[in-house]
Design brief:
The chain contains 3 helices and 11 strands. It is an alpha+beta fold. It has 2 domains: 35 residues; 144 residues, no CATH class. A hairpin with a 2-residue loop joins strand 10 and strand 11.
Length: 181
């Protein structure tokens, strides 16, 4: 028979561990938002509506499409298999709020980058690279403003993303022209 204080201690230890595990998921995104470097990616949106979750924009990134990845230094047929890939990005010349350019792809995380470059870690599914930032939820009222903007100027759409030193991404905002959503 175990002492009563041990039973109580085990209960609290189990509770703390469970709460800690649940807290890790949002903590990872919070760390990326707090420590990440801002970059901008060109997007090609869809505008679905989910009655349970509300209005959101499904995002597809130009730099993540197979047709773009195949042209990058480092691409090989071996990379076409599903798995984790690392995409190197460089800031645009001039305005850093313009879409960043993909400059290399690899299966292994690059060890050395030039100043200003970042690495995004993603899961390649055989067609595109997914970064975990493919959905952007918007309030209903903003959606009514955003939808006409998407139709008028699709080429001006870009995502504001923060990337931490480990290549994890967090979506910060959506830009249409000069307006941030």
């Amino acid at each position: 028979m175990s002492p009563p204080f041990l039973k109580g201690s085990l209960f609290w230890l189990a509770l703390v561990l469970q709460v800690g595990l649940v807290g890790l998921v949002p903590a990872r995104k919070a760390l990326t938002l707090a420590t990440g470097s801002p970059i901008y990616l060109q997007i090609a949106p869809l505008d679905p509506y989910d009655p349970l979750r509300g209005r959101y924009v499904a995002l597809s990134y130009t730099v993540a499409q197979l047709s773009t990845l195949e042209k990058l230094p480092g691409w090989s047929p071996e990379l076409a298999k599903p798995g984790i890939l690392y995409l190197c990005l460089a800031p645009p010349a001039g305005d850093p709020a313009q879409p960043w350019q993909a400059i290399a792809i690899s299966r292994d995380r690059p060890r050395e980058l030039r100043p200003g470059e970042v690495v995004l870690q993603g899961w390649f599914d055989g067609r595109q690279l997914r970064f975990g930032i493919e959905e952007f939820f918007i309030p209903e009222a903003l959606g009514d403003d955003l939808e006409p903007e998407i139709r008028r100027n699709p080429e001006t759409l870009r995502a504001e993303v923060k990337v931490d030193p480990w290549g994890q991404a967090a979506l910060v905002g959506l830009w249409a022209g000069k307006r941030r959503y």
